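Task: encode each sequence below as C-alpha cells.

Item 1
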Amino acid sequence: MLKACATQPATDLHSPPALINQGPELQIADIDILEATPEMDEFLERYILNYSDDHTRLFLLMNSITPNGVLGFTYDEALTLTAKESFERKTGNCIGFANMMVVLARRAGIKAYYQEVFRRPEWSSREDTVLLVKHINVVLEVTGYTYVVDISGVKINPNMHRRIIDDSYAKALYWNNIGAEALLKNDLASAHAYMSKAIEVEPLMTDAWVNMGVVLGRNEQLHDAAFALKYALELDTSEYSAMSNLYEVYIAQEDLESASTLQEKVEKYRRSNPYYLLKLSDEALAEARFEESISLLRRAIRKKKDDHQLHFALAKTQYLSGEIEKAEGSLLKARELAPEDWLTYYGQTLDQLVQGQ
C-alpha cells in the first residue's frame, strides 16, 4: 500500500466501485488540512513577524520547528495530521509536518510548496500488512534563495527525482494515508470511504487506486479489485505495487493465464521487498532448508537493517540450525532495535522464544 509514482493521465476518469455487504456507505465530511488557528497566528506574531526581512523570518521559522526549538516538533511516521493538529500536538509524519510548515510559512510571507521525493522503494511492515513508503517535504522560497525543509531524518540523495505537487494532490495524499490506517485495522468501510475521498480530490492518483484495489480484494470483490488495479496500471504502467496485487487477484480468480503475464515482473519486484524474502525464508525453514532460509534473511536484512523482526527471524533460524552462538548475537540485535512494547517479549531466553512460536 501507499505507493505511487508520477502518473500518465488517462483519457477517461472512473469512479471507484462501491463496497458491498459492509453496511451503509460512510460519508466523509470535507476538511481544510491547511486551516490556520489563532494559536498559530499568535506563535508567528510572537516569534517570527516582528522581523521584516524575509531571510530572517525563514531562519527563525526553520529553527523554531526543530526538536530543540521554540515549537519543538518531533517526527512520528505513524501520525497523519492536518496543519492544525500537527501544530497543537507538535508531532506528525511527513504529511502532517508539511501541512503545518506550509501554513506557517505562507502566513509569514514566505512562499511554500509541497515536494514529493521519489526514493528507492522502502517497505515497512505493520499489522501483517506490507507498506511501501513514500515521502514528501517542503520547499521554501525567499528572495534569491530556495530551501528544502525536512524533519524526518530521511536521507535525501541530491540526485533523487522530485517534483512540486499542488495543495490538492497533498490533500489527496492525506486522505489516502488516513484510509491506509483504516485498512491496517481491517476497517474496510472506513478505508473505502477515505480512499474514495482521495480519488474524488485527485482522480488520477495512482496510490489511492492501488489501495482501493486492496480494500476491494479483502472484501472478496475480486472483479472490482481487478478493475481498480488495472486502472492504476493505466495511470502508471510501471506501478509494481498494482501489478503485485493484481497478480494475487488473478490467482484468487484462478485466472492463471492472466497471472502468467505478470509473474516475471512481479517476482523480480518482490525479491527487492525484505518482507517477501522473509516469507520465502519461512517456507524454506518449514522444510528444514536452513542454509537457504538464513541466506534469504541476510538478504532481507541488507535491505531493511533496522527491523527487529527480521533479526529475530534470523536468530530463530540459526538456533534451529544449531548455530546457537550466532543466534544469540542476532537476538541481541533484535532487542537493541525493538520498540519498548516488545522488550518484555524479547526478555525471554531464545529457547523460550522459539518454543513459543
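Item 2
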Amino acid sequence: MNVPCLISLSLISHTNVGKTTLARTLLRRDIGEVRDRPHVTETADAFPLIDTAHGDVLLLWDTPGFGDSARLLKRLKQSGNPLGWFLTQVWDRHVDRPFFSSQQAIRNVRDEADVVLYLVNAGEDPASAGYVDAEMQVLGWIAKPAIVLLNQLGPPRPAAEERADVSRWATHLAAYPWVRDTIAFDAFARCWVLEHRLLESIGAALPPDRQAGFARLADAWRTRNRVTFEQSMRILAQQLAMTATDAVTVPTTGLRDAARSWLGGLLRPGERTDAAADAAMGELARRLDVEVRRATDQLIELHGLTGRAAAEILQRMGAEFAVDKAADPGKASVIGAALSGALGGLAADLAAGGLTFGAGALLGGVLGAAGARGLASAYNLARGSDATSVRWSPEFMTGRVSGAVLRYLAVAHFGRGRGDFVAGEYPPHWGPLVEQAVGRHGAALGHVWSEAHQADGPAGLESRLRAPLETIVAEVLAALYPASAQR
C-alpha cells in the first residue's frame, strides 16, 4: 500500500535576492512581504505548493535571507556548546534580530527540508560575490541536497545566453558535492515549462524511499500546467474565431453620397472617401480590441496573476479589411449616367467593387442610369444582400495568430511576484520564432479562414483553430526551451 508522502522544499538565499518574489510565482498567490530592502522575511513559513488525491503534499518553506554569512557559519558551528547556545537563544534574539532569524531559519531547513532551493543573483560573478562560498558552507552544514536557481536574469533571452550563465555558476559550484543541479529560473520571467525541468531535478535529488510520492506530486503539477495550457489555447482560439467571423454591414448610399464618393475617388485615388465604410472598419477594430482585452484578462486570471489588459493598438491599413461589397444601385446610377456604350457593363461591375456579375452580365450596349440601377439591384437580389459587408482579411487574421501567441507568451512568463500584469515590449528573439512557427502552418490557417463564414459560426471555427494553435505554441516553446521541451 502506498503511504501518503510529505515532501518539503526550502527556499533560501542571501538577503534581498528575491525568495519571496519567487515563492509567490511558484505558489500562484501572494505570501509574505516584498520590499527592496534586506531582512524583510523574519520567520520560516511553509506553504503547500500542490497535493494529490492520494494525500501527498509538497510544501515550500520561505525563509529569512542570509546576512553576514561568514558570521552565521561561525555561530552555527558554535551552537553545540553552552556559550554558542546562549549567544543564539538569548543574546542574538534581543540584540540582533535579523541574525537570530537567519539562524532559526537554517535550523528549520536542516530539520524539515528534503531538498534546498538556493537562489542566487545571476547578474553577479560567483567568484567575486564573497558571500557565496560562505553560504555554500552553510548548505554543507545543513547536509541536504541543494539545487541552485539563477534569479534576476532580466527579460527572457535566447537559450544560448542563459546556458552561458548557468555554465558559469555550475563551474564555480562544482566543488560542492551537495549542489546537485544549477538551473536558470527567474522569479520575474520564468515559464511553466521550466517548472518541469525543476521537478525533474528535485526528483533526482530525493532518496529512493521518497521517489514514488514525489512522482505523484510531479504528475499532478504537470497535469495542472497542461490543463492551464489547453484552457489558454481555448481562450485564444475563441477570440480568434470571434474576430474571424465578425462582420459589419454598411448600408447602401444615396444618390448624392454615391456621387460625392465616386467623384472623390476620381480626384483623390489614394484616399478613402466612403465615410460609411470607414465607420464600419472603425467599429470592427473596436470589437477586436474588446475581444483581445477579454481574452487577455482571462489569461491573466487563469495564470494566477492580477491586473487588466491594456488597449490593443491597431495600425489601420487597407489590407487588414476584406470589403465584400454589394452592388450599390445608387452608385451604379451615377456611373451609368456618366458612361455609356460598351463601357456600361464595366461601370456597373466597378460599382460592385470589382466583383463580377457572372455570365448574365451585360458587357455591351447602351446603359442609361435606370439600366445600371436595375442591373445592380438584380445582382443584390441574387446575392441576398443589399449592403456592403466589412470583415477582417485572411492575411490580417494570420497576423492576429502571431499576436495571440505573443500575448500568451507574455502572460505565461510573467511572475506573480512582479505585481499586476503589465504588457511591455516583447523580447526581440520571440518575434522571429513566432513568425516562423505561424508560417509553417500558414496553409492550414488559410483553410480555416476560408471556412470562417460558414453556418456553424464562431463555435465551429474555434474547434478547428485549437489544434493548429496548440501546435504553433508548442513549437515556439520547444524552440525557446529546447532542454525542457520533452519534460
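Check on item 2: The first strand starts at residue 6 and ends at 13. The chain has three domains: 6-190, 227-257+268-325+387-480, 327-384.
End of task.
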